[in-house]
Request: fold
Amino acid sequence: MSEHFRVQGGARLVGEVDVVGAKNSVLKLMAAALLAEGTTTITNCPEILDVPLMADVLRSLGCEVTLDGRVVTITTPKELNHRADSEAMGKLRASVCVLGPLVGRCKRAVVALPGGDAIGSRPLDMHQNGLRKLGAHSEIEHGCVVAEAEGLHGAQIWLDFPSVGATENILMAAVLANGTTVIDNAAREPEIVDICVMLQQMGAKIEGAGTSTLTVHGVESLQPTEHRVIGDRIVGATWAFAAVMTRGDITVRGVNPHHLDLVLEKLRMAGAEVTTFEDGDGFRVVQRDRPQSVDFVTLPYPGFATDNQPFAIALSAVSEGTSMITENLFEARFRFIEEMVRLGADARTDGHHAVVRGVERLSSAPVWASDIRAGAGLVLAGLCADGATEVYEIFHIERGYPGFVENLRKLGATVDRVSA
Ligand code: UD1
Reply:
């Protein structure tokens, strides 16, 4: 039975929300468990569909995986199956992160090309080129990335672009390579730091985590560990935008506020009062008047995350003035603007720029989510629309937001899950 959300506009969101582990970190950490024989435990996992899907991927490779609330336990055997082409592989983009660990452990991998969000073309050339530099042959064959190596050796690698996925895959292959690997123009996202911390706990020798040069001294083998996933900064940003858009007052716990430095600065420019907590656990965003328009440009971290772009569009749609939003990572991410226009947004795009003229009030309409963040952006817009907005294809949203409806209600929104 298909379900959708009915979002009543007009409420001011007030209260506190707890954010759990980052979707974009937990799946890579689960893949990292492939690198060590034995039992690895990952805590603070979000209870979202991608986690059991990733568990299925790991099981197909020979691991035993148990999920118990926010704790995932993975027991990795000595001999892994090197073929990751199960049905679960096609269902999530992050599944491609088993490529690096499999090449590292087995010296060969067959990994089905991944599925995931419809946000634009997502090539794997940088992943493959990196593995080639480490000594592997890699081709695309019959819908799979195939990589094989006699042995992996350290190398100097320059990425064309600080790709998150390519950095992770190359890193996870390099930790078990013979010699030293330097990845230049590496991604600096907090999720990259998270995986480096976990790999270091497992015995990997990595320098430069969080900078654009990662140096990896290969080791013979790694040991299993226990690791807590960092809080989800994109979910944290969603609540921060919700506070500003609804002229509300939201306290977010469970996220390092420094992972949102630029987001919070932009929201201050829009008129928000932002307090970051000194214990490093969260922040509070209060908005009293109509937000002012602000420009946004998406870039790799520490730039403004492309995943937050739909929230920037939604905020601009109700702000006073005109905003320009520039999308530099995924060309198809502007498609959701058509849905925003249904809600009465005055928005147009030209290539990778969008111009949004703020309106006083949006107008409820049926809209369709095309990916996780676009879906969440439509819900935020619905909160600022007259009447009840129906948001369809909510399975996208639920891939990224554990307890979304419950949290919205806790903050005072009127949101229902409706069965068709
Ligand atoms: C990850 C996140 C995604 C986020 C993105 C950018 C996960 C599961 N997903 O995706 O939510 O929006 O980072 O922060 O963690 N590219 C190439 N060739 C490659 C690899 C990437 O051209 O081999 C391009 C992509 O098309 C894109 C850009 O590089 O334009 C950035 O992609 P990348 O950082 O790799 O994103 P993902 O790791 O796929």
User: Anything to note?
Assistant: The two ends are 7 Å apart (CA to CA). DSSP finds 13 helices and 26 strands in the chain.
